[in-house]
Amino acid sequence: MAVLSVSNIKKAFGSNVVLTDISFDVEEGEVVAIIGPSGSGKSTILRCINQLETIDGGQITLLDDNMIAGTSPDGKPIYSSPQVLRKMRLNIGLVFQNFNLFPHFSVMRNVTEAPIHVLKMPKEQAVEEAKDLLAKMGLSDKHDAYPYQLSGGQQQRVSIARALALHPEVLFFDEPTSALDPELTGEILKVIRGLAREKHTMVIVTHEMAFARDVADRVIFMDQGVIVEQGDPRQVINHPREERTKLFLKRYSEDSQD
Amino acid sequence: METLFSTIDAAYMSKLLVILLQGVLTSLRIFAITLVIAVPLGFLVSFAKKSKYKIISVPINIYILIMRGTPLLLQILIVYFGPYYVFNLSYNRFAAIIIAFVLNYAAYFAEIFRGGIESMPVGQYEAAGALGFTKAQTFFRIILPQVVKRILPASANEVITLVKDTALAQTIGVAELFALSSKQASFKTSVIPLFVAGIFYFVLNWAVTAAFAYFEKKLDYYK
Ligand SMILES: Nc1ncnc2c1ncn2[C@@H]1O[C@H](COP(=O)(O)OP(=O)(O)OP(=O)(O)O)[C@@H](O)[C@H]1O
Ligand SMILES: [Mg+2]
Fold first, then answer.
1. pLDDT above 80: residue A45
2. Per the structure, how many domains does chain B have?
C-alpha cells in the first residue's frame, strides 16, 4: 500500500516553471532516492510535500489524507482544512541540508521541544524517547551540548533524531550530507542505512550515487521539473535507459573524479 | 579657581546633593517609564511596519521616518506647545516629556527589532514549521529568544542614549537632573553642580552598561 502518493504536481515561481507534472508513489518501508542536476526541482518537491511551498496543481495524499480538497473556479487548488494539513505535516519528517537546529536549545531540548509542545507528550516520556533516539545516533554523551559545540555530522544526527521524535510516517532528507566534509559524510550515510534496515519509509534527495544505489529500493531521476526515469537503482544508475540520465551520470562521474 | 570654589562649602555640598538626587529621581522616572512603554510599543510598531495592509504600513513608515529624521528636542517642543497653539490647551509637562520620548524611542526600538527579526535565517522558521509548531510557538519559542540575543548590543546603545537624552526634558521646564544642576550652577556661579551632575549621568550609564553586559553574558551559552 502506498503511504505517500504524489500525483500531477505542478509548481511555478512566477514564470519559471519548476515542476511540470510530477507523479510518484512511496510504499510502506520503501526507500526512494531522488537524483538529478542542480535546479531540476528536487528540493521543491520535498518542500511542496512538506507544505513549505504551495502547489499550483495536482494532489498529494498521505495515508488517508488529501492535501488538496478541490479546485477553485480559476483552476487553482484549494487546500484542505488546517487540521488535515497539520496532521499531514506531523506525519512527515524533514531533514535539511544545513541541519537548521535551534542554536539556543541543548541537544536534548532540540529533540524534545516538538514532542512536548506539538504532540503534547508528557515531558518524562519525551525525554525517555529522546534518550533512546540519541543513543541510536551515537550521541548519548551530548544531551547537554549546544549545536555550536558539535561537528557538522553530529549536528545532522541531532536533526535526524529531532525529526524521528515525532514518529513520522515518512522521513524526507534533502541532501543530508552536502554541507558536510567528506570524512563526515560516511557517518550520516551509516545512520540512514540503519534506518532503512529498520524499514523506515524514506525519500532521500542525494548526490551520493553509490549510496543511492546501495540503500534505495527505487531511484527517481529528475531533470528540468519532470521525472525522466525511475526504477531499480542498479538499472537507473548503472544502465540508464534515457539519454538525459546517461548524460547526467556521465557528467557526474567525471565531476566527482577531480 | 578661587572664584569657582569660593562659594562652595560643605553645608552647601550636602544641600546640593539632596537637590540633585531629586533631579536624578525625576530623570530616572523619565527613563524607566519611557523604556517600559517604548520597548513593547516598538515591538508592535516593527510588526505594523511589515503589515501587508498599506493603510497600516505606510503611516507607520512615515512615523518612523519623522521620528528618526528630526531632532528629539523639536519633537518635545511640538508635543508640548503644539496642543497649546492649536487648541489653546496646556497640560502636564512631565506627561508631555513621556509622550515625546515614548514616540521617539518606540521608533528606534522598532527599527532595532525589525533588524533583529530580519536577520534570522529562514531555515529556523522552516525547521519549526516542519516540526508542526504553530506560528505563535515558532515566534515565541524559536525566533524571539534568538532575536533578543542579536539585538542586545544595539539596544544597549539606545538605552545609554536615553539616559543622556533625559536632559532634554529641561527644555520645557521639567526639573530633572540637568535642569536642577544648571540652575544651581548659575545661582552659585560655579561649575561644581554641573560636574556633580556629570558624575550622576556617568554612574547611571555605568549601571546600564553593567546590566547589559550581564545579560549578554547570560545569553553567551550559545552562538
Ligand atoms: N523560493 C523560490 N523562488 C523562486 N525560485 C525558486 C525558489 N526556490 C527554488 N526556485 C527555483 O526552482 C528551481 C528548482 O530549484 P530546486 O531548489 O528545487 O532545485 P534542486 O533540484 O533542489 O537543485 P540543487 O541540487 O541545487 O539543490 C530552480 O530554478 C530555482 O531557481
Ligand atoms: Mg536542492
1. yes
2. 1
Q: How far apart are CA B60 and CA B64, in angstroms?
A: 6
Of B126, B130, B146, the CB nearest to A104: B146
Does residue A130 share a domain with residue A56? no
Residue-wise DSSP of B8-41: --HHHHHHHHHHHHHHHHHHHHHHHHHHHHHHHH
Cβ contacts of B180 within 8 Å, gap of 6 or more: B19, B20, B22, B23, B193, B197
SS3 assignment, position B83: helix
Sequence-distant (≥ 6) Cβ neighbours of residue A83 within 8 angstroms = none
Structural domain includes residue A179: no
What is the interface pTM, i.e. ipTM, of the complex? 0.93
Which residues in chain B are closer than 8 Å to A50, comparing Cβ atoms?
130
Query: Mind listing the pLDDT tens digit for each residue in B26-47?
Result: 999 999 999 999 999 999 999 9
> What is the total count of domains within chain A?
2
Residue B7 falls within a domain, yes or no? no
- For residue A251, give the CATH number of its domain: 3.40.50.300
Tell me: the pLDDT tens digits for B155-168? 999 999 999 999 99
Q: Is the pTM of this model over 0.80?
A: yes
Q: Which domain holds residue A154?
A: 96-167
Residue the block writes with cell 524611542: B105
> Which grid coordinates belong to B192?
561644581
* Inside any domain, residue B143: yes
Closest B-chain CA to A165: B131
CB contact under 8 A, B132 and A118: yes
Banded model confidence at residue A258, pLDDT cuts 50, 70, 90: very low
Q: Do A93 and B130 touch (CB under 8 A)?
A: yes
Q: Which helix (H) or strand (E) holds A90?
A: helix A82-90
- Interchain CB distance below 8 Å, B222 and A92: no
Amino acid identity at B100: A
List residues in chain A touching B: CB distance below 8 A: 50-52, 86, 89-90, 92-94, 96, 98, 100-104, 113-114, 117-119, 146-148, 159, 162-163, 166
In a domain, A172, yes or no: no
Calculate how close chain B gets to A237, using CA atoms only, in Å.
31
